[in-house]
Amino acid sequence: MRAAVLHEIGQEKLEVLDDVEAVGFGPGKVKLRIRATGLCHSDVSAMSGVLPQPAPFIPGHEGAGEVVDVGDGVTGLSAGDRVLVCWLPACGECPSCKRGQTQLCLAGFMNAGTPNFKRPGGDVFGFAGTGTFTEEVVVGAGCAVPIPDDVPFEIAALIGCGVTTGLGAAINTAQVEAGSSVAVIGCGGVGISTIQGARVQGAAQIVAVDPVASRREAALRFGATEAVAPDELADAKQRITGGEGFDYVFEVVGKSATARTAYETTRRGGTLCVVGAGAMDDTFQVNMFELFFDEKRILPSMYGGGDVLRSYERAIALWRAGRIDLESMITHRVRLDGINDALDQMRTGEALRTCIEL
Description:
single chain; globular
């Protein structure tokens, strides 16, 4: 079958090959035929080495498709079912799951160290234990979440990561209050979803911050009340909040420099929500006096900060009701052969979300 493979960490291009085989099918597993997958910035981060991932590997974790086969012991799924891929399935048994913090379950991360593909030259890993830049993939049954018939594959794919992450940051983690002021730093697919979440929550002012003009323009269409370049943020803070700072600031870039800017843009007693996934050697610093004196809440948000299955259901309900716009987030569509063009469009900021159709 065909798949896009990264041979070594640090390479910028993927090679589309037709000699890849999905392996590992057996008890507790399902084989999926991928129909659509989104290109998420985490895929690029794994390719560059910012996020840890063994190579060679097949990127992609934001996918949807159909069940081809189910292994022994799998219940609730049958061949032909339409599903989205959950890259962080909950085991239901660990302490995090029992506390209701299923987004912190580590069971899914354990899958990342087990190859689920092979080529004549050897094993190939799937990013985050999945790997959706491929025609077929074998995953644990918990990674395959049934979707209603009225949800297109490309919409389901977005809900599988970016939409859930952004909406959840605003709704679950920060719990944005109606009438509040919000700034969102970084307006790619996750940032746009965060803006939509803040709008759903009833924020009065939502300032989108991004260096790319097309992304600022898009942010206004998705609910931002104002969009500024990074060097205009200080002025916006002064104009909108009288210099006090925003009630909520979301860092959706994954860098300590922007996290520090976000901290300084948050009012005393306000909330800084860190959504971007950054590198292990990039350290965010605050001094002990300001940490105590300013009483700013620093809240990381992992995969939307809540039960992902409930978050999927909520996203679908909001989409059906017209409260969030998911179709317009897909600015580019390519076949698998166009994956490297899609990567370039993401790196330059031209694309919000690219749908790869398989």
